[in-house]
Each structure stands twice: as C-alpha cells, then as structure tokens.
Amino acid sequence: MREKREDSSAFEPTPLTPNMEDYLEAISHLSQEKKVVRVKDIAKRLDIKMPSVTNALNRLKSKELINYEKYGYIELTKEGARIAQKIRNKHSCLADFFSDVLRLSLKTANEEACKVEHHLSHGTLRQIDRLTDFFRSEDESNKEWIAELKSILDERRLSDLREGENAQIVKILGSGVFRKRLIEMGFRKGVQLSVIKYAPLRDPMLVELKDFQVSLRVEEARNIVVTLVDIVNGDHEQ
C-alpha cells in the first residue's frame, strides 16, 4: 500500500519547465540508486547527449537546485530535493492511477505518466490521487462493483492481442449469420486461444484454439471479446 499524500501542497506547480523537471526527477532517482550521480548517468537515463545534460545542469545550478562543478558529481540542494519530491509525487500519482484503476501494465503506466505529468494542474492531480485512494480502499473491502469494473477493464478485443498472447473468450459480439459463423468455427464463451501470428499487413491473423488453427480477418476478430491468460506447464491459467 502506498504512502498517502495528505499534504495539500504535494502537487503544487514547480518553477521549472517540463524539460528541467525531467532532469531534476532523474537526479532524484539516480541519487537513490547510486552512491554518486555523474553526467553520463543522467545522459543514459534520459537518452540525451552529455553536452546537453551539462547545459541543463548549469541552469539548475544557477537556480541553486543542485551542487555541481564541471566533471564533478551532482547533488540536490535542500530546495532541489523539495522540488524533486513534488515532481515525483505527480509521476507516482498518475502511475498509480493508470496501473491500479485503469489496469495498465506497470511499464505502460509509467510511460503514460511521463507523457502527461507536466501538463495537469495540481487540482486535477489531487482529485486523481483521491480517486485512486478511494478505489484501493473499496478494493481492500472486496466490494462487488470493484470486481465488476476490473473485469470490464481487463477485457480486450481479440484483434488487439499481440503475437504469442493467450486469452479466454468472454463473449461474441454481433448477430445473425456473422455471429453464427464465428460460433461454428469454435469461438464460444470460455474457450481459450492463442494468437499465432499476423500476416505481413496484419490481416488476417492466425489463431489456435482446441488444438487447431483458424485464420481470421481482423474485422472478425474485433467482435470477439477476451481476457488475457498465462500458460503454465502447458495449461491456461487466469
């Protein structure tokens, strides 16, 4: 369970540009991971050339947010650490929301948080944080609506799966002859399947179910709702 951020100033805006926030956040993370932080460490983490990092560090130094001498180690000042924590608050708030509430993978949640963390107001972030805390509280109480929402958010269209992914059919959409054809091909609720491969232009796709393979147009696969499952020792597990 994460530490709650009760401080009303936790998401207040910083005096830095989004670019400078990224540098300060990187220094903060690296400071916890390494004994010392060097220019090359920041360059590697942000995938930026070292001269650009040096220029950014000089700007942060001029704002008295870091201690840094050319070719030396980088340290956050007390004020730098305070602002860095605000930046990390924003990121963790969004990453928590994307992973816990929206059910995105941790990798995707962090990537999405990086994209939007600089562009939301502190009021919006505070509300997202409150919503995430409420969701977790309800989840810990085993509320039925949480389980139902998770089930819905975990659903995917078969056409959205990647090669090698495994799933279980939740339902078949559509009606009439089209739906009947899919059912006759073996696509029924509860059946487990695997995506073998896509054609070079991603249509059609080859799917394996019940020990045989079926070629489906992506348009058809969009009507098959599934949830992802893992395979352990040759068997499917939720």
User: What is the CATH fold-level name of the largest domain?
Assistant: Arc Repressor Mutant, subunit A
The secondary structure category is alpha+beta
What's the structural domain tally? Answer: 2
Write down the secondary-structure element order.
Answer: HHHEEHHHHEEHEEEHEE
Unreliable spans = 232-238
The top level CATH class name of the largest domain: Mainly Alpha
Mind explaining what this structure looks like?
The structure is a single chain. This protein folds into two domains: 18-138, Arc Repressor Mutant, subunit A (Orthogonal Bundle); 155-237, Roll (SH3 type barrels). The strands form two sheets. Strands 3, 4, 5, 6, 7, 8 and 9 form a seven-stranded antiparallel beta sheet that branches. Strands 1-2 form a two-stranded antiparallel sheet. It has helices at 18-33, 39-46, 50-62, 78-101, 106-116, 122-140, 144-153, 176-184, 218-221; strands spanning 66-68, 74-76, 155-157, 166-172, 192-198, 205-209, 212-216, 224-232, 235-237. Residues 232-238 have low confidence and may be disordered. It is built from nine helices and nine strands. It is elongated and about 70 Å long. With 238 residues, the chain is of the alpha+beta class.
Topology, element by element:
Blueprint: H1 18-33, H2 39-46, H3 50-62, E1 66-68, E2 74-76, H4 78-101, H5 106-116, H6 122-140, H7 144-153, E3 155-157, E4 166-172, H8 176-184, E5 192-198, E6 205-209, E7 212-216, H9 218-221, E8 224-232, E9 235-237
Antiparallel strand pairs: 1-2, 3-8, 4-5, 4-8, 5-6, 6-7, 8-9
Helix pairs in contact: 1-2, 1-4, 2-3, 4-5, 4-6
